[in-house]
């Protein structure tokens, strides 16, 4: 086999993954959030009023603001939870009973309260991400993948004829790699195809690299999140293969997706901000409000993206937010080292109790003459080969929030 032919398969494998992205956006290059003790705090429905920032680039949700009910209804037994969930589940979905049991089992395993708010939050995200398909299809997936393979081939000056000839090789399931690409419908199929292609690269003595297909399942949960959560909280099911494989099952995908959505304490007065966190990364809505507060006291224009630090690998680097605070360190009353120390807590609940958080919001309240918002919608544009129009985290959160409210009306 010529060198060009030998290179075709690993290059195609790398390009293959580029077509497998999701509208869920992790913090830009921040380290993965691995749940700790704080994740074990049960979620209770939020209460209180919301005050949105007055800065023009932070927009309030399009849906009308509501004051959540002061009284929280919790269902303590599994039978009560099952009956409530059955009332909230939409009609007309395939295997409705199976979905109901898997959702209930996830709540039980995570020790999350059975409540209309919690159940409807999960239901709304499932509807948005997969329309009740355990392995959701991606329209035009073969076209996306072939486009990425062609881009990769052009970069390495390989003719597509040679690439397609190499992909005519029979894969472990008996079909050629080309046939499998042409027949792609779901990310689960893409994941299996990549794994086979990577193994083939290894047999040829070429580097396979890390599987870059990052999300999957009915809630499009991150494989990296699933691996981290499984080390911090006992998995209630029998594990079949890798954590990656669990994410691509309905049971595992729902469990880890619900954990990502609800299995952490968040100081929000409306569920829409938790939906934004699901898309942009935990505590992004809290952090976006913090960035608005920093602007209030410094006058610096900042991106309200919820990322307080930039990262090079796992090491924190400079950021606009850090630069603005560093210039205002005397006013804040903290050294640069102390500011950086607290900013490193940005992906945890502890940041909300930090010295920096308290001082910045105290100064912002004073400068504004009122209590400024402690939550704001992250301003992030969503990028993906699957997205053909301008979408944002705010669009995602509001879309899910509309489904959430319709679900609550069913009880």
From TrEMBL:
Keywords attached to this entry = Signal
Q: List the Pfam families hit by this protein, alphabetically.
A: DUF1615
Keyword Lyase annotated: no
InterPro entries named in the record: DUF1615 (IPR011673), TAT_signal (IPR006311)
Q: Where is the signal peptide?
A: 1-17
Name-wise, this protein is: DUF1615 domain-containing protein
């Amino acid at each position: 086999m010529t060198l060009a032919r030998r290179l075709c398969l690993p290059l195609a494998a790398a390009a293959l993954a580029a077509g497998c992205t999701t509208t869920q956006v992790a913090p830009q290059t921040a380290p993965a959030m691995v749940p700790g003790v704080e994740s074990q705090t049960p979620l209770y429905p939020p209460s209180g009023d919301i005050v949105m920032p007055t800065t023009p680039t932070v927009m309030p949700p399009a849906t009308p603001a509501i004051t959540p009910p002061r009284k929280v209804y919790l269902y303590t037994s599994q039978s009560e939870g099952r009956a409530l969930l059955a009332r909230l589940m939409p009609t007309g979905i395939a295997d409705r009973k199976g979905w109901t049991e898997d959702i209930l089992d996830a709540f039980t395993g995570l020790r999350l309260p059975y409540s209309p708010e919690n159940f409807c939050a999960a239901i709304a995200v499932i509807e948005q991400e997969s329309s009740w398909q355990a392995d959701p299809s991606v329209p035009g997936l073969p076209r996306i993948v072939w486009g990425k393979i062609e881009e990769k081939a052009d970069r390495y000056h390989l003719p597509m004829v040679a690439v397609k000839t190499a992909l005519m090789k029979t894969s472990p399931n008996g079909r050629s790699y080309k046939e499998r690409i042409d027949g792609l419908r779901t990310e689960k199929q893409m994941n299996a195809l990549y794994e086979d292609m990577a193994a083939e690269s290894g047999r040829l003595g070429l580097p396979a690299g890390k599987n870059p297909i990052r999300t999957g399942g009915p809630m499009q949960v991150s494989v990296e999140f699933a691996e981290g959560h499984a080390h911090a909280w006992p998995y209630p099911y029998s594990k079949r293969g890798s954590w990656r494989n669990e994410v691509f099952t309905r049971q595992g995908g729902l469990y880890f997706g619900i954990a990502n959505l609800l299995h952490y304490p968040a100081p929000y007065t409306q569920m829409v901000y938790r939906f934004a966190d699901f898309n942009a990364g935990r505590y992004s809505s809290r952090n976006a409000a913090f960035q608005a507060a920093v602007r209030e006291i410094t006058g610096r224009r900042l991106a309200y993206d919820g990322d307080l630090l930039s990262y090079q690998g796992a090491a924190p680097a400079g950021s606009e937010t850090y630069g603005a605070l560093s210039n205002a360190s005397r006013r804040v009353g903290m050294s640069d080292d102390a500011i950086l120390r607290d900013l490193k807590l940005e992906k945890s609940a502890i940041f909300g109790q930090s010295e920096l958080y308290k001082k910045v919001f105290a100064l912002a309240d004073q400068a504004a003459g009122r209590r400024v918002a402690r939550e704001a919608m992250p301003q992030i544009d969503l990028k993906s080969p699957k997205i053909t129009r301008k979408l944002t985290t705010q669009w995602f959160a509001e879309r899910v929030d509309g489904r959430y409210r319709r679900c609550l009306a069913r009880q």
